[in-house]
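Page header: ASSEMBLY MODEL / two components / 555 residues total.
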Amino acid sequence: MDQLYREIILDHYKNPRGHGVMENADATADGQNPLCGDEVSIYVSFGDDGETIDEVMFSGRGCAISQAATSMLTELVVGRKAADVAAMPKEQLLDELGIPLTPVRLKCAILGLSTLKLALHKGKGTPLPEEWAGVEELDLR
Amino acid sequence: MAVTAKTRLDAHTLRKDFPIFEQEFHGKPLAYLDSAASAQKPRQMLEAMVEFYETSYANVHRGVYELAERATEGLEAAREKVRAFLNAPAAREVIFVRNATEGINLVAYAWGLSNLGPGDVVLVTELEHHSNFVPWQYIAKRTGAEFRMIPLTETGELVLDGLDELVGSENLKVVALNLVSNALGTVNSIEPIVEWAHGRGAIVVCDAAQAAPHRAVDVQAIGCDFLAVSGHKMCGPSGIGAVWGQAELLERMEPFLLGGHMIRKVHADGTTWGDLPHKFEAGTAPMAEAVGFGAAIDYLNAAGLEAIEQHEHDLTAYALEQLSDIPGIRLFGPPPERRAGIVSFAFDDVHPHDVAQVLDWEGVAVRAGHHCCQPLMAKLGVAATTRASFYLYTIPEEIDRLVLGLHRVRKVFG
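Prediction written out in full:
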């Protein structure tokens, strides 16, 4: 059970990669986990082709699982095209995390990814993931 | 204020009535410290429901056969138990609902929609559960009324100076507040607020979901106009609660839910409403749940509300003392003499979810999150807290295990 908080997770939690606010981001979005009130903001900048992700940053608060997953995510998607990341199955990120998750903690783990997909949708018009279906009608502030 | 109970409660003995404690979690006995979310169920309550289903079950009210009459008697006997428990003047003022949330929605819609408008003020507190916050915020918006909050002190107690300034010259119509905070355990001093609100011509709606399981609640002594409780927090089944209201207000209100049973006469061109409480109980009632609720009330009465309150007070004082020694912990809420059996805390460097996860490995069940109190969390400057809450079956050993678990949290997160 202690595997949940294995060393790499705690390392990303305590020293998150890409943590901070990006000024002049090309795309940005905010996400919330209504179960616990955690919030994350995602910022994306693209390379010269306007399609390839140059950098991803995030700010906000969350549990070790959500912070570590989002930290890993910022490394995982650099150099990939927006459309690829929009279509990326969550299992790719979960494999990277490499820990067993209960349904509640799964929501923590994918908050960053689904918020990134929302940012890509807003910035590049890529399809929304299921989690954000109907987002236009919701008041996400 | 904590009372000194005439008889003390023996939690170790009462615990044997609760089958859930016969299980182990992660190889350890269950330390259930989440009763503020929902209470565990005594065998006596479960048996009452089974007996009702096995011997007295039919749809209530309309049947003329003996079995249906027996079912109706079961439902109405439960209503009488709720009436007596709340010291309400009449059983017809007690309306069965799914839970306190539904009870408050009933009042917010059925009273609020036809009594609120521009220039009126709806007052809640920063301490409210979303169940007594969101319905009023929504109905205020729909009717054009102003929605305001009574602020809190640093320790999570209501600031009662300056209430008049909060309302100004506008028309105060309703004050909605809880008796006990689910997030911090704060016991609100309700009497001065009721007196003030009535003096300004407003009604008072009490959320007693967190008070009724743990201390005597007397609607006539409180002097409020509506009061809602949830059965599941009182050792009763899920899916049943009650809202009590002054008969004269209930009689003047429009119905909330419409359909079968709540009518007097239905014509092609209109419908008239039934008498109280039926006007507010559309559809088939949660009969077995009501019977279980009644049995739960019997169980609480047998244990004694004063003894329960005293027991939880002792546990809370003990927990606050033990927890204050843990490095880096931040404890929220008032001192033990002004709080119920709820302890909310946080660490700067460990998220409540992670705290609760590590505690689960120790068989300790606590709640982590915003406790449906996001305005309060914003005030405290946190997204969430970890909350341990106690009940009549809680024993000090469970608090010791909580403390041990928190030391393990510190070890995992350095």
